[in-house]
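Handout, section 4.2: multi-component inputs.
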Amino acid sequence: MKQKLFNDTTLFLTFAAAILLMPIWLAPLGASYPDLLQKFAIYGIFAIGYNILFGLTGYLSFGHAAFLGVGSYAAVWSFKLFTMNAIPAVLFGVFFAGVLALIIGYLSLRRSGIYFSILTLAFAQMSYNLAYSVLTPITNGETGLQLTLQDPRMIDAMFIEVGEGLPITNLFGIKMSGYSGFYFCAVLLIICFYISLRIFRSPFGLMLRGIKSNQNRMNYTGLNTRPYMLAAFVISGMFAGLAGSLLAVTDPLAGAERMQWTASGEVVLMTILGGVGTLIGPILGAGLIKYFENIFSSFNNNILHDFFSFLPDTLENIVVQVTGLFVGGGWHLTLGLLFVIVVVYLPGGIVEGFQRLARLLSRKKQPDKTSSSLKNQSAE
Amino acid sequence: MENLVLHLDNIQKNFAGLRALADVNLHIEKGKTHAIIGPNGAGKSTLLNVCVGRLAPDSGKVIFDGDELTGLKPHEITQKGVARVFQTPEIFQELTLLENTMLPALSKRDGAFSFNPFRTMRSQTDINDEAQDILEDVGLAEQMKQIAGSLSRGDKRRLELAMCLILRPRLLLLDEPTAGMSRHDTNQTIELLNKIKKGGMTKIIIEHDMHVVFSLADKVSVLARGKIIASGLPEDVRGDPVVKEAYLGGAQE
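Output:
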C-alpha cells in the first residue's frame, strides 16, 4: 500500500511554491535564466496534458506534436490579425488544438493498443506535411510563420500607435519575454497542475483508470468507454495547444518542425522518464530533458578539465576524453542511457525512485527502534 | 407468461459453418435461479455471450422484460439491468477493492457516461458507503484498501460478484462461478449466492459442478449440441434418460 506523504492541498501549495521560486533554487544549477525557465514551464504543461491521456487511460499517442504545432500557428495568427496580447493567442491556441484533437481522437480511438499509436502518428505526420507544404498560405511552409510590419493587428491598431519595428508580445503592456514571460507561463502551469490534480481525484479520473485496467469489465459495468476516451484525448490535446501557444507567446514564430514526430516522441520520453500516471512525474521528466538539452549540451572539454582538475594530469585527460563523449553534442547519449536505466530499473520513473528512497530512509529508522527493543528484551 | 423475465426465441449461431446454437428457445422465470448444464462444447458460453451482446445471434431474438436486447452493445444491455460474472474474474486488477466497487456504483448512479472532472471521489459519500456495504456483504471489507490483483482467486470472484451486485441487476448471469475453486470456497460461494437469492433477482447459472447446481437451482435446462434437450425441476432432469444419454454417453468416450 502506498503511503500518503502529502494531502492534496499541501501537495498543490508545495508545487506552486516550487514553480514560482524556480529562478532562485535553479540558480546553482545554472538553469535560472528566463528562456530556459519558460521552456520548463511550457513543456511541463505539455507533459501534464499528455499524462492525462497516457498516464490515466494507457493509450499511447504518438501524435501530440500536431496539437503543439496547431497551438503555435493559432497564436501567431492571433498576433498577426488581432493583437499582440497573449490572452487571445492562448485562447485561440487551446481552441484550435481542441478541435483538431476532437477530429483526430474521434478517428483514432476506434482502435486501441499499437494501432491507436500508429493512427495518431499518421495523423501527426499528415499535419506536419500539410503545414510544411500544402497549407503554405496559412503556415508559410518551410520558412515558418512570422510577424511582419504589414500585419493588420486590427485590435491593436484601434488602441495603440504603431511604433517603429516589430511589436512585441505582451500581457496588457507587460512584455512577455524575460522573467515576466516566465511568470505568465508559470501561473498557467500551476493552473494546469491544479486541473490535472482535480481530474486525477475525480470520478472521471477513476473511469479513465478503469479503462486502462480492464475495458471489458467497463463495458459490462454499463459504461460507454468511447466518450471517456475522447474527453481525455481532447483535454490532453488542449493542454498541448496551450503549450504550443505559449511557445509562440515567448517567441512569436511557428514552424512545421514543431509538429514532427520527434517532438511527439519527446513528450512520451518526458512522461516515462518522470513517472507515467503520477502527478509530478511528467513535469520532472520535462524539466530533466530540457535541462539536458540546454545545459548539458553546452558543456565542453574546458569545463570538464576544470571539473576534474583535482586528478593527476594523465588520469584527468583520460577521464575528460571519456566523459566528453557524454556531454556537448553527445548529450543524447547520456539521455539515452538514463532512459534505459529508468525503464529497466525504475518502471515508475523518477517518482518511483524518490518513493523507494523515502521508503529506504523510513525503513532505516524503524529497524533502530525494533533492534533496540529486541536488545531490551534479550537483556531481561 | 407474466412472470417470465427473459425470452430467448429461436436463437441460432454458427461459427464458420460450425453450429454452436441450433434453435434455442428458453424462458426464464422472474426471481428464480435457472441453471444451464450440458457437456463441454454444448454452446453454454455462446448462449451467455448472446444474452449480454458480446455475440450477435445469426437469427432469433433476446427479449428482456419487454425490451429486445439483440443488437444492443454490452454497456447498453448492462444499463438495462443485466450483469455478468465471468469464468475468469474480470476485475480492475490495478485498483483497490474500494475503487473496484465504487466504479460500478457510479455507473449505476450516473449512467453510461458522465463528465464530472471537478468533483472529487472523496465527496461521493453515498457511493463510498454503498461500496463499503457491499464489500462487507461479501466479506472483503477488511481488504478494501488493497489492490485487487493481490487477492486470491476465490476472493477475486467474490469481488467480481460484489461489483455485479452493486449494479442491482434484475438479471445476473454467472458463468461457472465456482470453476477452479476449492470445496471450501465453493461452499462459501453457494452460501453467498443463496443469501442474495432473497433479493428477488433472477439468475442464470452455467455450471459443471452438479453439487452447485442442485444446491442453487430452482430449474435446470440441459443444453447439448446447441439444443435444449430437457428443462424442468432439478430432480426431474436428473432422472431423465435423454439427459443421461447426452451426458454420460459423452463422458464415457
